[in-house]
Amino acid sequence: MKIGIVGTGYVGLPSGVGFAELGHDVVCIDAVGEKIDALNAGKLTLFEDGLEELFQKNRAAGKIRFTTSMKEGVENADIVILAVGTPPHPETKEADMKYVHAAARELAQYLTGYTVVADKSTVPVGTGDDVERLIRSVSPDADFDVVSLPEFLREGFAVHDFFNPDRIIVGANTERAKDVVKKLYEPFGDKAKMLFVNRKSSETIKYASNAFLAMKIHYINEMADFCEKAGADVFEVAQGMGLDTRIGNKFLNPGPGYGGSCFPKDTNAMAQMAKKYGVRMNLIETTIRENDARKVKMAHRILDAVKTVGKPRVAVLGLAFKGGTDDCRESPAMEIVAELLKSGAVIRAYDPKAMGTAEKILGDKIEYASDAYDAADGADVVAVLTEWSDFKTLDLVKLKQKAKSPELVDLRRIINKKDAEKAGFSYRGIGE
Ligand code: NAD
With a 6 A CB cut-off, is 155 part of the ligand 1 pocket? Predict the structure, then answer.
């Protein structure tokens, strides 16, 4: 099949490479010329485990191409996938639909023959109708259907998740459109667990899922606070809860609060969208408020460890919103860093993959280290903010020798407390 993908970011690029690997002819379109130039020069514009090899292989085989020209990507395509951003509107917190609407208007001009326009961006309920109207207003005679094809990949595991999807949700209102999507995933064979629903249900499934996961994270974080006071250990509690198949053991890791480009924006968008329909989402609204407050509380937990130091030097380990990605959008680590800076702390940070993306946001407000030990050099406190597996295997004796004081605050609880104490650290985790 011929596929055009509009938007070559964290969703569009791994999906494009994945569809090329499945044997389709893929053209990735992006409005940002530098991104396309880099990709055409064989340079990936983001980090995802396992992406490099598949990208190079399919690029060399001519199965995937990159362009800024909507015409080139859309003309003759069987399916055009929208994977542009839907960031939160700065004031209303609703999903900002300007990129989706602009892309729909632009692609409408180049549709040839029957085409399915599939929306992979996370969008408010009813967007499929809007996109249909926009395309129709530009090209009244175009032969097309709009389907909702929400994306569930996890950053850091995008390639794995593309090839091993839990489910493929398809919101399609016509049989013709369903057949095209079935063909798209045909190479998966029986692995494609497809659920066909109406378009608005599909749009809702994405928000309902992300809001649920965000609430699950917040729940275990509250439980961690409780365990600290009550003398229980949240990891043991989570393990025990997770054995119940009705609960499941995923998303029960306590931490400094959820972040990233999806959960904060999608919970806010869900709450705002519900208000418009006169429905109050109390659980989601509480989760948003308390999760925001948690990041500030966590910064103060670090500062509490060095109360007696005037301008503490903080070694920050991890800036990405989670391990396995270079994405710092709404990263709890970045928000904790901002709060520490406000309190006069001096930060020296290290992240295995996100130094570049973090520097674009923080500039010269912090110092950038070459590794974890360099970050700890002369530190009054070492703070682990992202759950990189590299941090689980640090030489704690070496880390302690570099630091000025023995304070170690592990907001991900990935460092073994006994090992840390043996190395001379005064260890504070969470939820114990
Ligand atoms: P992103 O910001 O990384 O990428 C979006 C890309 O779209 C950018 O490169 C931008 O230049 C391009 N773009 C915007 N308007 C365009 C236009 N008119 N024509 C061509 N290109 C255009 O965003 P992302 O993280 O890939 O997210 C995309 C969508 O997928 C969002 O709605 C997001 O909520 C959803 N989603 C993201 C994830 C994730 O893990 N990042 C997971 C599931 C769903």
Answer: yes
Residue 32 CA, closest ligand 1 atom number: 11
- Ligand 1 atom 3: the closest Cα is on which residue? 9
Average confidence (pLDDT) over 416-422: 97
Residue 192: pLDDT band (50, 70, 90) is confident
Please name the residues in contact with 378: beta carbons below 8 A apart, sequence gap of 6 or more.
Answer: 313, 402, 403, 404
Q: Reduce the DSSP state of residue 336 to 3 states and report it.
A: helix
Q: Which atom of ligand 1 is nearest to the CA of 46?
A: 3
CATH architecture of 2-197: 3-Layer(aba) Sandwich (3.40)
To test ligand 1's pocket by mutation, which of 6, 10, 117, 119 has the most ligand atoms within 8 angstroms of CB? 10
Claim: this prediction has a pTM higher than 0.90: yes
What 8-state DSSP symbol labels residue 187?
A: G
**For residue 70, how many C-alpha atoms fall within 13 Å in the half-sphere facing its CB?**
16
Contact call for residues 149 and 169 (beta carbons, < 8 A):
yes
- The CATH code that applies to domain 198-432 is 3.40.50.720
**Whether 28 is catalytic:** no
Average pLDDT value for the chain:
97
* Residue 32: both structure tokens together: 């940002």
Atom of ligand 1 nearest to the CA of 106: 18
- Which residue has the CA at smallest separation from atom 12 of ligand 1? 7
Residue in 28, 227, 262, 328 annotated catalytic = 262
Q: Give tens-digit pLDDT for 112-167.
A: 999 999 999 999 999 999 999 999 999 999 999 999 999 999 999 999 999 999 99
Per-domain boundaries in the chain: 2-197, 198-432
Indicate the pLDDT class of residue 191, thresholds 50, 70 and 90. Answer: confident
